[in-house]
Amino acid sequence: MRYVMVQIPNKPASTMPPAPRPVPTSADVARLAGVSRATVSYVLNNTSAVRISEPTRRRVREAARELGYVPHAAARTLRAGHSRMVLMPTLPVPAGPLYSRFVHDFQGAMSRLDYTVVQYGASGVGGDEAARAWAELRPVAVLVPGTGIGPEGVAILKRSGARAVVTLGPEAVEGAHAMLLDQADVGRGAAGHLHARGRRRIGVVVPEEPGMELFSAPRLAGAREALRGADATVTELPLAYTEEAADALAARWRGLGLDAVFGYNDEYAMLLLRALRDAGLRVPEDVAVIGADDLLLGRLLRPRLSTVRITLPLGRELASLVDRAVRNPAAAPESHALFSVAVVHRDSS
Amino acid sequence: MRYVMVQIPNKPASTMPPAPRPVPTSADVARLAGVSRATVSYVLNNTSAVRISEPTRRRVREAARELGYVPHAAARTLRAGHSRMVLMPTLPVPAGPLYSRFVHDFQGAMSRLDYTVVQYGASGVGGDEAARAWAELRPVAVLVPGTGIGPEGVAILKRSGARAVVTLGPEAVEGAHAMLLDQADVGRGAAGHLHARGRRRIGVVVPEEPGMELFSAPRLAGAREALRGADATVTELPLAYTEEAADALAARWRGLGLDAVFGYNDEYAMLLLRALRDAGLRVPEDVAVIGADDLLLGRLLRPRLSTVRITLPLGRELASLVDRAVRNPAAAPESHALFSVAVVHRDSS
DNA sequence: TTGAAAGCGCTACCAG
DNA sequence: CTGGTAGCGCTTTCAA
């Protein structure tokens, strides 16, 4: 006598969610093709160490196609003990054009090296908590932008099998490779330039949009630092990215007694520059203006906008760093400064 | 007599890669805490169906902390049979500001609903091949921008357990929910506006940057279509995003005999507008200019740039659509047109 | 309150 | 050339 387990619906069939056809597995393919699961695996992975007759191969492929079989990445990863996923947490703010391009290039370069780059939607948690969430995915490498990770987080990732951790931020983190990229340099460059041009009462725009302090705070701090000890003042200028806010700021400009402004980036600078001119101020005579990022559009406005040009690391170079690090995880962490900053003096300062 | 397997290095120890300390598993935690793996699982997942004594809980947590234990997502997914990952293939081009913001909002909304959004770096393959690669990850939902998937691809994903497939493109795909979003509408809007303003010989900028044809081709086609049968001509104007290219185009402008131009988007439009004016042409008298995307910067240029405003679906609304679809996979696919297009007439046309 | 064990889907070893 | 099978790390019944 044999017994068979039968699934008993615990609700009337009419209210049950329609039984989703179960996802086909390699066992289903094997059954349909009349071979073993091992053979299926050999055929579908073109395992060269093993010879499978052509008719068998055809039967297996045919069965897989018929069932719409797709292998299960999690199972494969579990079995293999490693994957080729490179994890990149997404920024907590919408990406700007420079960063978008950088990520795109990096992704292209990595896929040419046969890695898969995955941008992981940060779930709001931070610090070691975030590092743990990333570690759960067992990526082969992690590329962390900003200051979202510390030595403890790096250790967590490495203990979980990450063969390379690379940070993209202002300072190297113990145990991780670093692409040095300090937003404060941008503020230093801008403030230094304005000071060199003879300006002494310098405003620094700070976007009011939430999350932007990630970039604006170091840029402001850099400006402050560059002028420390010099006979100059730095005034923080909160500004929302709207025409109205810019006009309002321009309207009370004369009362501020400033002779120069660093506009956070080219977009805010262009916005403010236009508002200042509309308010009757002369640029650069009454007020010098400088932006950052060297957007093409900044060159179109008149007067042409001075700016701080930022060179992000090339996706290719970073990809090759990651690849080397993965291949040789024992190597000492490298610090690179492919990021660089250069003042471009045009007409607005 | 018992035998024990011993791992024999096949190279001299000095040239061996340093044996990476194996990643701790829940079994290691159990061993260290002196309990079973089941207990570890109960404690770390706060399983409420089971009471574990407080001292035991502490011992387990302490052991986990000491080892730096992080659970293995692949194993958990495999066991659970499902995950809460929402897959979003990355665009084949760097994202623009509108799209970046949209993705950011969507991600935030999804994580509030307790899903994890993952942007998956497309490996260059396309069509059903790409769909299969996505299906390997067994995402609970897939959000596909553009025209990167057909009915066959949707079927593959659903057979692999995806409970919702949503496309973000010009037309609904069999079996998938759709957020209708046709770039051709932008071209239609722009061309219609220019024609209504009395222009008849209309140029359409087509960016030369690789990959942009994804967006520029439908915009051009939409413009052509809007003017079909009207007494108007459409001229394709290839343009690279550099000042030199814009100046070169402006230099031969009079020879082209055009009285209006749709600049692909605001950035190209601003670039070209400036070059045309520098070449001595009057805007809008000699040539009307219109862009698209309604960037704030377009309002700063003089004359103020006319534009086609594009409203992307809100991240929140899309997130709720995805969530509903996941909860009720049997529901008929919905088509929404939260995307909309409106001509904003300013001074340049 | 805790432990033993099955099994998710896959690949790689070894035997036939 | 092909099949049987162990085991990757985890959760979850069932039994003690």
TrEMBL record, chains A, B:
<dbReference type="Pfam" id="PF13377">
    <property type="entry name" value="Peripla_BP_3"/>
</dbReference>
<dbReference type="InterPro" id="IPR046335">
    <property type="entry name" value="LacI/GalR-like_sensor"/>
</dbReference>
<dbReference type="InterPro" id="IPR028082">
    <property type="entry name" value="Peripla_BP_I"/>
</dbReference>
<dbReference type="GO" id="GO:0003677">
    <property type="term" value="F:DNA binding"/>
</dbReference>
<feature type="domain" description="HTH lacI-type">
    <location>
        <begin position="24"/>
        <end position="80"/>
    </location>
</feature>
<keyword id="KW-0804">Transcription</keyword>
<dbReference type="Pfam" id="PF00356">
    <property type="entry name" value="LacI"/>
</dbReference>
<protein>
    <submittedName>
        <fullName>DNA-binding LacI/PurR family transcriptional regulator</fullName>
    </submittedName>
</protein>
<keyword id="KW-0238">DNA-binding</keyword>
<keyword id="KW-0805">Transcription regulation</keyword>
<dbReference type="InterPro" id="IPR010982">
    <property type="entry name" value="Lambda_DNA-bd_dom_sf"/>
</dbReference>
<dbReference type="InterPro" id="IPR000843">
    <property type="entry name" value="HTH_LacI"/>
</dbReference>
